[in-house]
Amino acid sequence: MTEKKISPQKPIKLRKRAKHKKPSFVRPESWRYIRIGESWRKPRGLDHKVRRKIKGWPPAVSVGYKGQKIARYLHPSGYREVLVHNITELSCVDPKTEAARIAHTLGKRKRLCLMKEAEIRNIYVLNVKLYAKEPQEEESVDEEKLITEDTAEQAEEDILEENEIDGEKE
């Protein structure tokens, strides 16, 4: 059998349309009592109006509100997320349907290696902004600090010279 090819943005559009129909589920009677939070809790009472689906009461959570199968687990970019810890895991990523998310437990050196490898394989990396800086840039920052310290010393010397000149005039 042949599979139908679906554009990567179609599931996102379907999910967005379904999300508009889904009500916001709040804990029943949370609007009535301050001590009850809004996060959903399943009503379990024998006479509870929401559990019995009485007209005029908000809907309860049910399987019918579940998202569509093709749109489930998708990133808003249209790719499926894959958590990557090393190059072997990165090699398993399909660049057409999946996007890599670099694990937060990795150091800068490994992140940069993974970024370069992903660029070679044309793999979309979801958290690329966090790892864009290279370690060489940090060294240049240290040089800038030295330059600013030198200028600060020169400024102090200039102030002292001005004070001496002012003292001679008086």
Task: Describe this structure in a few short sentences.
It contains four helices and two strands, in the order αβαβαα.
Entry keywords:
4 helices; flat; 170 residues; two-stranded parallel sheet; 39% helix
Describe the fold and architecture:
By secondary structure, this protein is mainly alpha-helical. Among the domains are: 17-67, no CATH class; 80-131, no CATH class. It contains four helices and two strands, in the order αβαβαα. It has helices at residues 10-21, 87-91, 108-121, 135-169, and strands spanning 80-84, 98-102. It has a two-stranded parallel ribbon. α2 (87-91) links the parallel β1 and β2. The radius of gyration is 30 Å and the shape is flat. The chain starts with 9 loop residues before the first helix and ends with a helix. The model has no long low-confidence stretch (mean pLDDT 83).
Secondary structure: elements and pairs:
Elements: H1 10-21, E1 80-84, H2 87-91, E2 98-102, H3 108-121, H4 135-169
Parallel strand pairs: 1-2
Shape: flat
Largest sheet: 2 strands, parallel
Strand order of the largest sheet: 1-2
Order of helices and strands: HEHEHH
Q: Span from first to last CA?
A: 101 Å
> Total number of helical segments?
4
In the predicted model, the low-confidence regions spanning at least 5 consecutive residues are: none
Structural class: mainly alpha
Mean pLDDT: 83
Number of strands: 2
Approximately how much helix is present in the residues? Answer: 25-40%
Strand residue percentage: 5-15%
Task: Please state the CA-atom Rg, rounded to the nearest Å.
Answer: 30 Å
